[in-house]
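Handout, section 4.2: multi-component inputs.
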Amino acid sequence: MSIAMIVFLVLSIALLSMGIYGGTVQIPDAAAVEAGAKMPGAFAQSVAQLKNFYLVLGALVLFIVVYRFLFKRANLKVQHLMSTTIRYVILIGVGVFMVYPLLWMVSATFKDNNEIFSTLSLIPSRPTLDGYRAAMNDYGGDINIWRAMLNTYKYVLPRVLFTVISSTITAYGFGRFRFRGRNALFALLMATLFLPQVVLNIPQFLMYRKFGWVDSPYYLALIVPSLFAQETYFVYMLIQFMRNIPRELDEAAKIDGCNIMQTLVLVLVPMLWPAMVSAGLFQFMWSSNDFMGPLLYVNSPARYPATLFVRMSMDADTGFSWNRVMAVSLISILPSLVVFFLAQSQFMDGVTAGAVKG
Amino acid sequence: MTKADGASAVRPDLRKRRRGLSKLEQGYMGFFLILPWLIGFCVFKLYPFISSLVYSFTDYDLFKGVQNFVGLQNYIDAFTKSKNVKALQVTFAYAFMTVPLKLIFALFIAYILNFKIKGVGLFRTAYYVPSILGGSVAIAVLWKALFKSDGVVNTILAMLGFESINFLADKNWALFIICLLRVWQFGSAMVLFLAALKGVPEDLYEAASIDGATKARQFVSITIPLISPVIFYNLVTQLVQAFQEFNGPYIITQGGPRNATTLISLIVYNTAFKDYKVGMSSAMAWVMFVIVMVLTLISFASQKKWVYYSDGDGRG
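Output:
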């Protein structure tokens, strides 16, 4: 046995015994103190409070020591089996941590409000659609979840379309042409990648207010900037992609008599298509999730998109009707979930293509 | 990341052809293509950026407009008013808690996934879904349901025999819960790490293990240096993002309890849209901008020390 192992063994025994000791400490209640019961010392009190923590940590350290010990003794085949097992245990454990909240959310929408927080079970004991029924309610006659969803996609879809087109054209200009000031402008473009939006929010708000874009029925404040390729991530991502497309293709198209836009549309777009789809998908997700934008630029409840609607219904209901809140929330993210599962591989490719936040 | 430029530098034939474009194309066409972006940049980025700086030296009111030029007063307030100083502290605490936790977790999971694991795709999807949905209000609402005083996590704690904790009302816990929401979304960082790990040549590990290097040693001496560009990329993007966190605290805790989760972005929003003090708010935004800028520059400057680019010229 190595020294490190002995140290860890001692540590785990110390932790476990502290946990057990903590379990034996009696903390008298106020009445008992009045009657003359002795209050345990500050140390004993703190140990008693954290007894479970010590027990869990001690058991964990003990497990690691025993595992290492057995691992060193085992032959190669058993070692392989042991490390594979532990990897799966970690992966599944983390997987539960990742997925359980989402599954809980789904199951909560089918529970009644008394059951939601009283059990951890994912299967409702008395399944009910009350949550969904309540989720359909109107708010002041102006807005309900379906209207809110419709409102969301009224600006999300144009934004996706415009972003992809404008970003592709900008990427084409930067990626394929030399012109005076190109390098300086490119540096500027890259700098905006790191420009925090928070600095821009307030002056943008004042400007859009002057333009009359705040609370516009056409969501102008949310849509118009996407016409001008202002989401630098996508421009950058498309430029990176374009670099891997051989220039010989452009040359050949030119020789065949294509003009510049024809070259873009007929030659580059088919090659760039996967990257453009990725950009569109990410823009779809980010725009549907966007909260700050609608919070600033949409005021009247009739125009609320899903994000604002979900928040409003939470504020209205906290405390009693969580199945309704969860149902509204789930409906609001359902389209994003469906899109994600249909286009998973494009998302993974998009992330690794070079530029992505989140 | 500028591999293509590097390639054309060693292949003069490509360069020559580039010069072969007609004068017109070299001169104007590219510029016309980027013109929409340039206009957008001036209107939606540059002008707001500069006017934000100008406002920060005035007492601009959301409804009354500019009244007076106040010099550095807003900046003095930013560093002396206890509410603002607290927001700065909280933001630093948040960023320096979230970013390392998220990156270490992402790297750890990517490292395990990179062994020949059956069902990689399934695990990867399970880990990635939260990052896709995580920014949404729905997930913030879910987080509130998980961590409220009689929420799911407290039900679990009660079953294990722990005392329940009022996470969102306890000033020592609230910030950590917001941080946990972002750590939970480690998926996109993990996907990047996984792709980078797959790119590390197998034979390096083989050579190292023949020389007697342990797994831990291999990880530190081979894996970390070879994926350092991705670590760097993740570090910078996550840092910039962490300093701008808004949705989590705004929806889950409204900045409470007792301003324990009031990050700078919340102060900026509240000062401008609740107190109508646009000038003060702009000053706070600029303080944040300078902090983010300095941290980004430090990261870029530190690159030389620890980021290893295999093709020499490839500066991100």
